């Protein structure tokens, strides 16, 4: 078990799982099968809602781990629809400035960091357990964006800007910044519902992604036992 993860007097880790919408919360709860160590919260869509909801939840109890969980878009060649992605780092990919020479991150601007590290040890253990359970999982940067990518050009630009980018979603950075501020380790677990690229909402495979999220949540429960 990672040294940073707190245990209470009964040696039980309390885990906060932040989702965006009710369907994601319900999928996670099905996988957890009533395990009382986990609190699963609907934090809303987008970074601001996620950060505010996570900070509020972390103020109500002593958690040893915060997990951002939900569906996401997968980058071509990195994560197929129905597979899982574990963030190797959480990256606010549109937090910065546009310049004539291209995008300039807040890191380059000198205003903090658009990248939050995850609990690497726990991420590795969870990835191994997911693979052992027969669930396909990739590890790579998970991008947080305010706007869902809708063109091949933007997908290619993001993939070039963040080498190895595996998935994009809309909340991870908000959850991660709130957790970091509270000294709580963070993970991001995503199941892939669609490919990052030209918008085609009819091609989103949400039921398959929610099934994968449910299965992954059951594995997470076992890994933290
Ligand atoms: O319509 C439904 O039944 C339904 C069920 C569960 C979730 C949804 C959502 O639309 C959730 C929005 C949520 O999904 C993330 N997401 C998924 N794909 C992408 C993407 O390609 N780019 C960015 N974000 C994506 C995102 O985190 C949203 O919060 C609908």
Automatic annotation (TrEMBL):
| Record HAMAP family | MqnB
Please list the residue ranges annotated as the Nucleoside phosphorylase domain: 40-218
Which keywords belong to this entry? Glycosidase, Hydrolase, Menaquinone biosynthesis
Q: Which Gene3D superfamilies match?
A: Nucleoside phosphorylase domain
Q: Which organism is it from?
A: Paenibacillus profundus
Instruction: Name its pathway.
Output: Quinol/quinone metabolism; menaquinone biosynthesis
State the reactions this protein catalyses: futalosine + H2O = dehypoxanthine futalosine + hypoxanthine
Q: Which GO terms describe its molecular function?
A: hydrolase activity, acting on glycosyl bonds
Q: What class of enzyme is it?
A: hydrolase
Q: What does this protein do?
A: Catalyzes the hydrolysis of futalosine (FL) to dehypoxanthine futalosine (DHFL) and hypoxanthine, a step in the biosynthesis of menaquinone (MK, vitamin K2).
Q: Per the similarity annotation, which family is this?
A: Belongs to the PNP/UDP phosphorylase family. Futalosine hydrolase subfamily.
Its EC number is 3.2.2.26
Lineage of the native species? Bacteria, Bacillati, Bacillota, Bacilli, Bacillales
Which Pfam families does the annotation name? PNP_UDP_1
Q: Does the keyword Hydrolase apply?
A: yes
Superkingdom is Bacteria
User: What protein name is recorded for this chain?
Assistant: Futalosine hydrolase
